[in-house]
Amino acid sequence: MRVSRTPGGRRRAKGIAAVGLAALVASVLAGCGSGRTGDGGDGAGLIVGTTDKIFSLDPAAAYDNGSLVAETQIYQYLLNFAPGDPTPRPDAAEKCEFTTPTVYTCTLQAGLKFANGNPLTAKSVKFSFDRMLGINDPNGPASLLGNLEKTDVVDDRTVAFTLKVPNDQTFPAILPTQAGPIVDEQVFPADKVMADEDVVRAKGYSGPYTITSYDKNKLVEYQANPDYHGILGTPKTPRISAKYYATTDNLKLDLQSGAIDAGYRSLTPTDIEGLRGSDKVKVLDGPGGELRYIVFNMNTMPGGTPEQKLAVRKAVASSLDRASLARDVYKDTYLPAYSSVPQGIPGAAEPFKEIYGAGPNKDAAAKFLADAGIATPVELNLQYNPDHYGSSSTEEYKAIKAQLDGTGLFRVNLQSTEWVSYQRERARDAYPLYQFGWFPDFPDPDNYLSPFFGPNNFLQSHFENPGITAQLVGEATQPDRDRRIQQIQQVQRDLAQNFLPIVPLLSGKQIGVAANGVQGMEQTLDLSFKFRYTVLSK
Fold first, then answer.
1. Which helix (H) or strand (E) holds 502?
2. Interval 116-149: pLDDT, tens
3. Which is nearest to 536 in space by CA: 149, 261, 163, 127?
4. Is the peptide bond before 59 cis (omega within 30 degrees of 0)?
5. β-strand pairing of 433-438 with 502-515
6. Which of 230, 295, 311, 484 sits a CA distance of 20 to 30 A from 173?
7. Tens-digit pLDDT profile for residues 154-206
8. Any bridge partners for residue 80, and if so which?
9. E strands, 81-157, where?
């Protein structure tokens, strides 16, 4: 779970050490409650601008949005997401399947090779996964592989993954994530992270592009890899350049002037609103799966008893105007969210809308409090972060304060803290209510459930319930798709009706901007959250 991947990077909220879905299930069933480098290149056929930053080109250390974009171009995965399709499909693999409930076996395509000419075999795959877990870099995505017991080479083209927990339905969706790039065992060190310059020179990757010139977080130039054979297909534009911006102002100006051909992450809502009115570019919207929400510390939030605390949470849920936040603060770049699983993800439901209403309901909120014997106004100490979730966070949380105060049922004490302190103080139970955000690791509903609500969840909200835990284990290991969807919808309803550890607020779209002559961007703005240069052309 890429922790709070920040607005400029995919470090999970995916920013926190998130608990992998598979790792959670495994623990439950086990009984535990820059410089410049390059080889020349021949110019860019198309220029894409971004404010995201690359943290590392080595998959073992990369768990952020900026690195993900680079990885998407240069690395191949056993399974990957075709543009517009959130279902994992064979990429380097010819096929993958459960051969026993605890063994997931993949057969590679014949004749694969890395961009440096070295063969890509089952040994390469085993090395890549063993290396990811062995290095276990604190900045990396190894936690996603928590359910992986071991990886074995069956023959040159066959690799078998032995899982700790049987029938893990999330494992195929984890293979296309940042935990799954295949690297060349002949050039990558087994026990340490490789420097970006060495990754570029060694070309121990096999994706649709190679890097021809690398000036980190300034300009990166890509050239189509003629030896790539996978689901992303032949790049429509052989040469792509990625230009990195320190501010969204300059990114917006270059889009308007035609100095660059496309922009992806992270323009402000005001920038996007302005660009929608331009006749020189088109603004494209796609499903994103990003979630914004308020977390309740179950120990320190207001209320003298568990029943009173629950009543406060229900009253807050009934008092918020999500549509106003989406419209007035985020200029409709976000949508109202009524569950922890955003719309568009398989199995998503909207229990908060069904139970608490699509809009604010002061009478319902007052009744929850009165029935629990709670005097009003209830004092809420609400903390938010102004620098990690985007420049509009301050406006968002001022609006939330105004909405809650406006009911007369609450008195909100709103405070903000910079991200480094925010993480530390939150972990010390300093915040009774606090802001969080989430970017998905993969488009499976469990990625919005187990990390949030299972034992030892990354929210550190002191929420744990044996019944919810059992439901999470059940859905994550249910091989029948229809039954699994029903289980996922039921756990969403139970959480909204009986527990409310979080109140969902908003679900973010993916936004891309392209010059009028540029085609293909709409194909890659999908639930996989992978921005693929292969589909872009002009």
1. strand 502-515
2. 999 999 999 999 999 999 999 999 999 999 999 9
3. 261
4. no
5. unpaired
6. 295
7. 999 999 999 999 999 999 999 999 999 999 999 999 999 999 999 999 999 99
8. 89
9. 89-90, 93-100, 103-108, 148-155
Q: Is the pLDDT of residue 37 over 70?
A: no
Percent of the chain with pLDDT over 90: 87
Which pLDDT tens digit goes with each residue over 283-312? 999 988 899 999 999 999 999 999 999 999
* CA distances from residue 126 to 37, 153, 346 in whole angstroms, order as listed: 29, 7, 31
In the structure encoding, which two tokens stand for residue 5, read together? 């991947």
Token look-up 């940042």 returns: 178
What's the Rg (C-alpha) of the chain? 23
Q: Under DSSP, is residue 240 helix (H, G, I), strand (E, B) or coil?
A: strand
CA distances for 466 relative to 453, 454, 479, 497, angstroms: 10, 9, 22, 16
What is the distance of C-alpha 367 from the center of its chain? 37
Over 60: is that where the pLDDT of 14 sits?
no
Cβ count within 10 A of residue 268: 21
DSSP 171: H
Query: 381 forms bridges with which residues in the sheet?
Result: 413
Q: Which domains does the chain have, with CATH numbers?
A: 288-510 (3.10.105.10)
Count of alpha carbons within 13 angstroms of residue 275, beta-carbon side: 31
Give the whole-number percent of the chain exceeding pLDDT 70. 92
Q: Quick one: tokens of 22? A: 């598979």
d(CA 89, CA 111): 19
Query: Minimal CA–CA distance to 144: which of 62, 199, 28?
Result: 62
End-to-end CA distance of the chain: 34
Give per-residue pLDDT as tens, 409-440: 999 999 999 998 998 899 889 999 999 999 88
Encoding tokens for residue 331? Answer: 């200029």
Angle of CA points 131, 17, 393, to nearest 5°: 135
Contact predicate 93/231, CB 8 Å: no
Q: Which two tokens stand for residue 66?
A: 């900026």
For the purposes of burial, counting CB atoms within 10 Å of the CB of 531, is it exposed (0-12), middle (13-18) or buried (19 or more)?
buried
Whole-angstrom distance, CA of residue 353 vs CA of residue 344: 16
Strands (E), 170-280: 209-215, 219-224, 239-244, 262-264
Burial of residue 358, with CB atoms counted within 10 A of its CB: 0-12 exposed, 13-18 middle, 19 or more buried: middle
E-assigned strand segments in 179-309: 209-215, 219-224, 239-244, 262-264, 281-296
Contact 510, 525 (CB under 8 A): yes
Nearest to 266 by CA among 333, 218, 221: 333
Q: What phi and psi values does residue 298 have, to the nearest 5 degrees? A: -65, -20
- Average pLDDT (523-534) is 95
User: How far apart, in whole angstroms, are the C-alpha atoms of residue 329 and residue 334?
Assistant: 9
Could you identify the residue written with the tokens 């429509």? Answer: 236
Of the CA atoms within 13 Å of residue 423, those in its CB half-sphere come to: 16
Q: Assign 57 to helix, strand or coil.
A: coil
- The token pair at 61 is 């250390």
